[in-house]
Amino acid sequence: MNDHNAVGEQLAIFAPRAGGLVDRSCAPLPRPALTPIDMALMNSPAKTSFVLSQKHLLGIEGLTVQDITGLLDLAEEFVILNRQVEKKRTTLRGRTQINLFFEVSTRTQSSFELAGKRLGADVMNMSASSSSMRKGETLMDTAITLNAMHPDLIVVRHHASGAVALLARKVDCSVINAGDGAHEHPTQALLDALTIRRNKGRIEGLTVAICGDILHSRVARSNIILLGAMGARVRVVAPSTLLPPGIERMGVEVARDMREGLNGADIVMMLRLQRERMNGSYVPSVSEYFHYFGLDEKKLSYAKPDALVMHPGPMNRGVEIDSIVADGAHSLIREQVEMGVAVRMAVLEALSRNLPNA
Amino acid sequence: MLSDRRPILLANARVVDPSRNFDGIADVLMADGVVREAKKGIGAAGVPEGTEVIDCRGKLVAPGLVDMRAFVGEPGAASRESLASASQAAAAGGVTTIICQPDTSPVIDDPATVDYVLRRARDTAIVHVHPMAALTKGLNGKEMTEIGLLKAAGAVAFTDGAKSVTNAQVMRRALTYARDFDALIVHHTEDPDLTADGVMNEGEFAARLGLLGVPKAAETIMLERDIRLVGLTRGRYHAASITCPESLEVLERAREAGLAVTAAASINHVTLNENDIGPYRTFLKLSPPLREEHDRQALVQALRSGLLDVIMSDHNPQDVETKRLPFAEAAAGAIGIETMLIAGLRLVHNGEIDLLTLLRATSTRPAELLGLPGGTLRAGAPADVIVVDMDQPWVVNPDELKSKCKNTPFDEARMQGRVVRTIVGGRTVYEVV
Fold it and tell me: Exactly one of A56, A89, A95, A185 is catalytic; which is it?
């Protein structure tokens, strides 16, 4: 981690509003004057012209710091675009994007759908409940079938770790991992990073506490890698049964209680705990879990006074997070959703630049 | 064919015979299906008329391998691997005796099925085949099988194959009863509850891949329990596949206590580690899982010291359909019978072990443990002999492997050394021209 200083310098260069705290409410940017249809913007290419080092986005692992910074900078442009009446670009005109969701996810799928449509792609959604995937067709057969339809981008979510990388080996187009098992969820980590950068002006040097079901969480893994690469200090906070053995060797600090774990934290990132894991298998009960690990105002007070709260959603109110905190002044949860669309547009655009005939 | 049974002289070979601790230049003469003699200067002294004389020019000549653990699909899944195809693979890999496991359909748990396997092997296989029989009926871990009758029918040992017997009472009774027949009990030591949904070694790498881990304790706890039961019953016990130094410690204590306990590790666990899984390569999904490099090194050290008795292939053919899946959903197992010796030569070429150690663990020791006559070049031993070019370089091409399934962990691997001739019962069954 000797290159943290270098990371910092880059951030200082690229972060649009580095230095100084900003208003955390959702509209900090100066809005350009609205015109009904801004043809100039619609047809102009993005100002940021970086090239992603990858053909696919399978994880944060493998991305360079330049990749991450480039994607975040590009996403900033889309944040502006998305706040206008005219939200369309033509970058992906003629391109076909397939959202292939083996695991149901309304918010991630709709976020990718909107992102693709705003860039001008033809977007098709396929979900496990409606397709041959239920009839026993294997992942590989599905991949081969879809590949024959010449898509340009496939967005995949699957319940098994490594499944997206497996599929990527069988198709010719670019593949975006929208979550594979307990492995990675790179666009979530990117949108979290964008949200943090916009609100704190930087990532380097911040202390981020990731709390909850680390064992089963792809969000935690992607965030650990990304935040570590960008120079943040990452702490995971969970009961020991929800920590994967060996996690300390991923370059994080490990805390087993919230007071220790949140002490001095700039960002408190809560994870969802699935109900089937709360009935004695990993933790004894919902009430015991909430008592020790649920984020309420008291536990939040262990963090820095200006600490911000994040959650990838969907939330279990009263399990891992108290409604007062989730809806409170420290919460960035709604902004995360907004950043999600912008980051996914940035990812789609960056990958499309590497496609043939781009 | 008569010509097949001509006497054979392997001349000017580097003969390695662990049963006599011999490693030197010599000749080996075979006739009537047995080794006549193996010593220096037989050729010069004259050989029987009609002898096929093969000048080995310093190539390795050794007793054929006895592979103590191979899962063959016959009966029930011959499309994955038949006794015939497994024996072809074995011959190409220098294995002259396959010990097949009872995890078949039907399970090899009655004397008639043992008889079936032996007859099918006699009619279709080109190497020797001996089955292990199930330790409990249907591999259900509840009632013991007819150990006496099965042994009389030709079962060389008793095991529940890839399953562990979780009930300590059942294991105790089986060990006690088997002792009366001097039957060897072979056990896959992996606590299924602790293993649960784990699919690879527990630790940093599993955490990074987002896969659930199998702790080493799942193996060691079961082995520890078994050793206590062996102490209680004084039965003969063999741990089928161990992977870590914690298990070696348990084994060492059992040896010091004078118990009849032996152990094997698979060729995969002594030549590969978990990092070889890389980007979710399912051909390296094994049960028990590949461990860390220091665990592998501990196994190699135990091989040198003699604490670890046997290396086996753990040959387990799996279809494309059960392997081309996300890692957690893929079947465990890898083929290995054809590459076991050559993969083992990596350890020899690296200087980690010597040839005597490798061949003792893959040939002489398993034959001894199972009471089989092979694994030696002593006069009168079966003429199960291999000739190996120690240095020939090649790249493993799955399409050229003889197994019906191609799930080799050594896919595209560079190898040094190749089996050039395999002789079973005095007949050449495999030859590279």
Answer: A185
Distances (CA, A) of A279 to A75, A274, A285, A289: 40, 10, 5, 10
Look at residue B360 and tell me whether its pLDDT is greater than 80.
Answer: yes
Q: Is A249 on the interface with B (CB under 8 A)?
A: yes
> pLDDT grade, residue A357 (50/70/90)?
confident
Q: Chain B residues with CB inside 8 Å of A165's CB?
A: 279-280
> Cα angle vertex B159, ends B155, B164, to 5°?
170
Peptide bond preceding A314: is omega within 30 degrees of 0, i.e. cis? yes
Q: Is B327 close to A161, i.e. CB distance below 8 A? A: yes
What confidence tens digit (pLDDT) does each residue in B44-76 have? 778 888 999 999 999 999 999 999 999 999 999
Residue A132: what pLDDT?
A: 57
Q: What is the DSSP string of A138-158?
A: -HHHHHHHHHTT--SEEEEEE
| pLDDT tier, A1 (very low <50, low <70, confident <90, very high otherwise) | very low
The pLDDT tens digits for B372-411 are 999 999 999 999 999 999 999 999 999 999 999 999 999 9
**Residue B371 CB: number of other CB atoms within 10 A?**
11
Rounded to two decimals, the pTM is 0.89
Residues of B in contact with A244 (CB under 8 A): 206-207, 213
Does the structure show a pLDDT above 70 at A24? no
Among B residues 324-353, those touching chain A with beta carbons less than 8 Å apart: 324-329
A298 is catalytic: no
Where are the strands (E) in chain A, listed by range?
Answer: 96-101, 122-127, 153-158, 174-180, 207-211, 233-237, 253-255, 267-270, 308-310
Averaged pLDDT, B165-175: 97
Q: Give CA–CA dist B37/B322, Å, rounded.
A: 47
Which residues are bridge partners to A57 per DSSP?
A176
In sequence order, the β-bridge partners of residue A331 are A309
Q: Which residue of A has its CA nearest to B326?
A: A163
In angstroms, what CA-CA distances link B130 with B67, B154, B411?
10, 7, 28
Q: Find out whether B22 and B15 touch, Cβ atoms under 8 Å.
A: yes
Per the prediction, chain B carries an average pLDDT of 96
CB–CB contacts below 8 A, A to B: 77
Q: Do residues B80 and B318 touch, judged by C-beta distance below 8 A?
A: yes
Task: Give the integer Cα–Cα distance in Å for A140 and A358.
Answer: 27
Sheet of strand B128-131, all strands in order from the earlier edge strand to the far edge: B65-70, B95-100, B128-131
SS3 assignment, position B139: helix
Average pLDDT over residues A126-143: 72
Residue appearing with tokens 């690296």: B350
Residue among B204, B215, B326 whose CB faces A163 most closely: B326
Q: Which of B158, B166, B72, B55 is nearest to B116 (CA)?
A: B72
Q: Residue A249 has which token pair?
A: 């060797």
Name the DSSP letter for residue B210: T
Place of tokens 């010449």: A150
Do residues B286 and B268 touch, judged by C-beta distance below 8 A? yes
ipTM of predicted assembly, 2 dp: 0.86
Residue A45, exposed/middle/buried by CB under 10 A (0-12, 13-18, 19+)?
Answer: exposed
Segment B8-18 shows an average pLDDT of 97
Residues A320 and A210: beta-carbon distance below 8 Å: no
- Distance (Å, whole) CA B279 – CA B159: 34
Interface contact A166-B215, CB threshold 8 A = no
